[in-house]
Design goal:
The protein has about 170 residues and is mainly alpha-helical. The chain contains 8 helices and 2 strands. Helices cover about 60% and strands about 5% of the residues.
Length: about 170
């Protein structure tokens, strides 16, 4: 009886190993295309516990390690992160290739009736409007006019710092 159980466990481990090798041999996805590099996450939750409250800084560090295009796992959902002006511009210019994402729980949280993010939307009219707006904002940011934008950001950050300092000293 014990020998039969050991054989069953060995066959199960062998089957899982063969499936894993097949999965990796096909590039890890159903199309057989290579996936972008990225950090490994934990089972079920993925990389979410390691993101922290300042996701943008975490993504900058990951971009330094993995490049401008990398992927992270949020729960069971793989998310590809584009982390440079040129890559984002290329993705926005090829809108048909990047539109029509599958619906997910994370997307439903970020896209509501009152707020929306063009990164989580499909190729509808609002997505196209937000896409054009993002392209204009990115090109303005990357152009020589960014000194004006920089001055506005500096002024806003100084005001925010003063306000937060005032709140911390009164509490």
């Amino acid at each position: 009886m014990i020998a039969w159980t050991i054989v069953q466990i060995a066959v199960l481990i062998w089957a899982i190993q063969m499936l894993w090798k097949y999965y990796k041999a096909n590039g890890g996805n159903k199309f057989g295309l290579p996936e972008p590099p990225g950090p490994y996450g934990l089972p079920v939750v993925g990389y979410m516990p390691f993101i922290g409250s300042k996701a943008h800084l975490t993504f900058v560090k990951l971009a330094q390690k993995y490049g401008d295009i990398f992927q992270v796992q949020f729960g069971t959902q793989k998310v590809v992160v584009l982390n440079s002006f040129d890559v984002i511009k290329e993705a926005l210019n090829k809108d048909a290739s990047f539109a029509g994402r599958p619906s997910s729980a994370a997307a439903e949280i970020f896209v509501t009736e009152t707020t929306s993010s063009f990164t989580m939307r499909t190729g509808d009219a609002q997505w196209k409007f937000l896409r054009k707006l993002a392209i204009k904002a990115l090109s303005m940011f990357a152009s020589s006019r960014n000194s004006r934008l920089e001055a506005v950001i500096d002024e806003a950050s100084e005001e925010l710092h003063a306000e937060l300092s005032l709140q911390w000293t009164t509490n």
